[in-house]
Specification:
- The complex is a heterodimer of chains A (488) and B (457).
- By secondary structure, chain A is mainly α.
- Chain A has one domain.
- Helices cover 76% and strands 3% of the residues of chain A.
- Chain A contains 19 helices and two strands.
- The longest helix of chain A is centred in the last third of the chain and has 32 residues.
- Chain A starts with a helix and ends with a helix.
- Chain B has 457 residues and is mainly α.
- Chain B has one domain.
- Chain B is built from 19 helices and two strands.
- Chain B has a two-stranded antiparallel sheet with strand order 1-2.
- The two termini of chain B are 19 Å apart.
- Classes of the chains: A mainly alpha (488), B mainly alpha (457).
- Chain A: Its main location: membrane.
- Chain A: It holds the Pfam family Proton_antipo_M.
- Chain A: This is NuoM family protein.
């Protein structure tokens, strides 16, 4: 029951928000609803016992004739992603407060509608429900980016849309295939776990699912939609995409790919990890060349996500745990970065690194918060990025030392270009453009300080977070190993 | 039987009312007649009857009859303001549509091949006239003539096929034909094979499946929009019901023989419809080609025959009908204001009329097959049906086509929301609003809770 409230509260909020035609009321209504959702999520967290069980389960028949149930629940892995969604959404809404969007009610209604879709994805235990949530999250973000985006938004978003939906249609094919193999004639995740498919079948299913997830994350070479989409989208859209939506792909791999077709994963894992590491290096090099800070962050995000993917596919405890915590950290950090750039862009109408400079002198608060977020991104010990990145690198290293070394060096390289752009934007002398820059105020302060607080708190004391998912990850690995040894 | 009688009587009453120039009474009488017919349809649910060995009113027939009647009802609601500007002979319009509906009811409930022919002819003759009812319009005349020639041609095929089947079995009754086939599985009369193929060709003409689709775009574009709406929804649904009754019923024992031929037709239809639709600038033409591609998806149900084939067609047809009606309603509305039915004339519709824009968007999403709309469920059950028989390649082709479909349906959405248009206020008459709102709700309800109509028949 609590879970239904969690999932559908944003939807109710979306409908309510759509009815407020006054811009400011719509904003406030959206914020209030997202904070309520956060409160519900925290309530669930308090009741949550960190073992491997699935809790708060709701299960009732939805479309009986087709064997579809509304079956959802939360285990440790879901809990992390649910928290991520519900912590970031209010921040994202608050971060958009300075913008005056046309038809604000529609804008905020779409954001909240998307939240419901995301929560469905993260809690679904029925493959059909998962697919519905997957698409329900895509439609609003398409409209958000294509309506309120920048130059070339129509073309860029069409590409984004066709790309992602192409992936998801093949995933649907895979889901139908599994359903037809399932003697119980339903879409239950638990039944899918039990299926005994041979290696060829697993290989096909693996690719059907993997392409959908790889496009969403995105993993090299399926990433080409991403930098353009991030750049043209309105900032809240970019935050939703990079902060939450790409985690759908990661979560999908963990929940629907690894345990359902472990043999397929094992057969292809080497190629995937190599692709992921190529992505890490490739994106880092491109990021290094970027003049536009927003594009730089977009590419660095590809780089970081590549590492998460590589870590997951090592099928090790560190890799999975690292990816769980890194999902959360990456979400927080990346929306922080995009927000800082948005603040700069909204005042100076540019994100070109070369045109900026000396902002630290005129805006010390912005400079210090930006620095903290940046440190989190480059995974300095004591910030939230460290623990996840450390675990991920360790897992890749123990999988293959060479790959680990390449990935590790790239992360250091990442720090270089991040600090270089920080130096150019914040340090040095002010120029004609930046001299009159006003420091952050009002809602901007609230958002940035919250993000910084999260970065430091999680960085210093990540243990409670790690505990949430620990038992579930352990259980998942047992399941995978059990199935693998059963077949061999 | 009551259904046909009611509709035919309504048609006659309307004709006489028109004679006495009581224009205002036409629409209420028609709508009332349709409601009574719908009432009869619903009352006869679960009470299968056979009339004179010619017509079999079972749940299959009733379900398709209901969709046809509801679709026609909505199309009549759209006549407000439409005919007044186009013609003096509104009564004839109404009568012809109603008679066509009679033919359609016969088509969905025939038990005898001669009734199939009679039903198709009653419907087609009315449509030939309706397509050309704008006497002074060149395109309309062209559409009518083309439709007539092609239609007559296809009827010839159909009739020849029926004759061959009669030659093989000595009967027009579809149950007798089926029994004949079942009893002689090893020794089927050779007349059956050309007979089945010819009937298939004839029916493919009627439903507009490639490569027998050439009339569709021109006729759809040339005919008055309202008639096009009628043709592409109600008529098409009836065509599929007729198809299904024969091929999933009587010819089912020879499935292995005609399935490969149909499979080729399906693949050509899907690819051709979708790829050509991609290049259309005219909204009506685009809908025509998209209707060809939908015919392809609908034929999926015949590739693999299961207990659910009929039900799947019903779901798909319902989804398609309601979405198309919304599309045509908005099209007529826009065309009256801007004088053009190009996709460009939809530019900026969101500002001019948010309701129409939203309804059109949901309709397009449904036609494209996005989850939570009826169109998705329709496509889903079709895919599921075919996957059950491991026709994975076919599903992959269908998925690639669905992707192409997204592209051109989204072009309409892009025009509506993201392009700047001329700031002409677009007012929607009340009846249009009713149609838009109800259809949109139906699309969403069927998309979110399709259990309502799944496996109904």
């Amino acid at each position: 029951m609590e879970l239904l409230i969690l999932i559908f509260l944003p939807l109710v909020g979306a409908i309510a928000t759509a009815l407020f035609t006054k811009r400011n009321t719509a904003k406030v209504a959206a914020l209030v609803f997202s904070i309520f959702s956060l409160a519900v999520a925290i309530g669930l967290l308090c009741k949550f016992t960190p073992d491997a069980s699935t809790q708060f389960v709701v299960n009732f028949p939805w479309i009986e004739q087709l064997g579809i149930n509304f079956h959802a629940g939360i285990d440790g892995i879901s809990m992390i992603t649910v928290l991520l969604t519900n912590v970031l959404t209010p921040l994202i809404i608050l971060a958009s407060f300075k913008h005056e969007y046309k038809n604000a009610n529609a804008f905020y209604a779409l954001v909240l509608f998307m939240q419901t879709g995301l929560l469905l994805v993260f809690t679904a235990l029925d493959a059909f429900l998962f697919y519905i949530g997957w698409e329900a999250a895509l439609i609003p973000i398409y409209f958000i980016c294509a309506t309120w985006g920048g130059k070339d938004r129509i073309k860029v978003n069409m590409k984004f849309f066709v790309y992602t939906i192409a992936g998801s249609l093949f995933m649907l094919l895979g889901i139908i295939y599994l359903f037809l193999q399932n003697p119980a004639n339903n879409f239950e995740l638990a039944e899918f776990y039990k299926l005994e498919l041979d290696a060829t079948q697993q290989g096909w299913i693996f690719w059907a699912f993997f392409i959908a997830f790889a496009i969403k994350m995105p993993i090299f070479p399926f990433h080409t939609w991403q930098p353009d989409t991030y750049t043209t989208a309105p900032t809240p859209g970019t935050m939703l995409l990079s902060g939450i939506m790409l985690k759908m792909g990661i979560y999908g791999v963990i929940r629907w790919l690894l345990p359902v077709v472990p043999q397929g994963v094992q057969d292809w894992t080497h190629i995937v990890i190599v692709l992921a590491i190529i992505g890490v290096v490739y994106a880092a090099i491109i990021a290094f060349m970027q003049k536009d800070a927003k594009r730089l962050v977009a590419y660095s995000s590809v780089s970081h996500v590549g590492l998460i993917a590589a870590g997951i596919f090592t099928l090790s405890h560190q890799g999975l745990q690292g990816s769980m915590i890194q999902m959360l950290s990456h979400g927080i950090n990346v929306i922080g970065l995009f927000f800082v750039l948005d603040i700069i862009n909204s005042r100076l109408a540019t994100n070109k690194v070369d045109e900026l400079g000396g902002l630290a002198k005129v805006a010390p608060q912005l400079a210090i918060t930006f620095l903290i977020i940046l440190l989190g991104t480059v995974a300095l010990p004591g910030t939230n990025g460290f623990i996840g990145e450390f675990l991920l690198l360790m897992s890749v290293y123990s999988y293959n030392a060479w790959l680990g070394a390449v990935a590790g060096l790239t992360i250091i390289f990442g720090a270089v270009y991040m600090f270089r752009s920080y130096q150019k934007i914040m340090l040095g002398e002010t120029n004609a453009l930046t001299a009159g820059f006003k420091d952050i105020n009002g809602t901007e302060k609230v958002v940035l300080y919250t993000i910084c607080a999260l970065i430091i708190v999680i960085g210093v004391y990540p243990k409670p977070l790690m505990q949430i998912s620990d038992a579930s990850v352990q259980h998942l690995l047992q399941q995978i190993n059990h199935k693998l040894t059963g077949i061999n | 039987m009551n259904i046909i009688i009611t509709i035919a009587l309504t048609a006659l009453v309307v004709l006489y009312t028109g004679l006495f120039k009581a224009k205002k009474a036409l629409l209420p009488i028609t709508l009332l007649g349709l409601l009574v017919a719908l009432g009869f349809t619903i009352c006869s649910w679960d009470q299968p009857t056979v009339h004179f060995g010619m017509m079999q009113i079972d749940n299959f027939a009733l379900a398709f009859a209901s969709i046809s009647i509801i679709g026609t009802f909505f199309i009549f609601l759209l006549t407000q303001r439409y005919f007044a500007e186009n013609s003096q002979n509104i009564a004839e319009y109404f009568t012809l549509i109603l008679f066509a509906l009679c033919g359609i009811i016969i088509m969905v409930s025939y038990k005898n091949l001669s009734m199939l022919f009679v039903g198709i002819e009653i419907m087609s003759v009315c449509l030939y006239i309706l397509a050309g009812i704008r006497k002074l319009n060149f395109a309309s005349n062209e559409a009518s003539l083309k439709y007539f020639l092609m239609g007559a041609f296809s009827t010839g095929f159909l009739l020849f096929g029926i004759a061959l089947i009669y030659g093989a079995t000595g009967s027009f009754d579809i149950d007798v034909i089926q029994t004949n086939l079942v009893n002689n599985v090893t020794n089927v009369s050779p007349l059956f094979y050309p007979g089945i193929i010819l009937i298939m060709v004839g029916l493919c003409f009627k439903v507009g499946a490639a490569p027998f689709h050439f009339w569709t775009p021109d006729v759809y574009e040339g005919a008055p929009s309202l008639i096009t709406a009628f043709m592409s929804t109600v008529v098409k649904t009836a065509g599929f019901a007729a198809f299904l009754r024969l091929f999933a019923g009587a010819f089912e024992p020879l499935h292995d023989f005609w399935m490969p031929a149909l499979m080729v037709i399906v693949i050509i239809t899907l690819c051709l419809g979708n790829i050509t639709a991609l290049y259309q600038k005219n909204f009506k033409r685009m809908l025509a080609y998209s209707s060809i591609s939908h015919a392809g998806y609908l034929l999926f149900s015949l590739i693999v025959l299961t207990a659910h084939s009929a039900s799947n067609v019903l779901v798909y047809a319902a989804a398609y009908t309601f979405a198309s009606i919304v599309a045509f309603a908005v099209l007529i509305n826009v065309k009256q204001k801007t004088g053009s039915d190009d996709i460009e004339s939809f530019n900026g519709l969101a500002k001019r009329n948010p309701l129409a824009a939203l309804a059109l968007t949901i309709a397009m999403l449904s036609l494209a097959g996005i989850p939570l709309t009826a169109g998705f469920i329709g496509k889903y059950v079709m895919f599921l049906n075919v996957m059950e028989n491991y026709q994975v390649i076919l599903v992959v082709i269908a998925i690639l086509n669905a992707l192409v479909g997204f592209y051109y349906y989204f072009r309409v959405i892009i025009a509506v929301y993201f392009k700047e248009g001329k700031e002409v206020e677009l007012d929607t008459p009340v009846q249009y609003k009713v149609v838009l709102v109800i259809s949109t709700i139906v699309i969403l309800v069927l998309g979110i809770y399709p259990a309502l109509i799944l496996n109904l028949i």
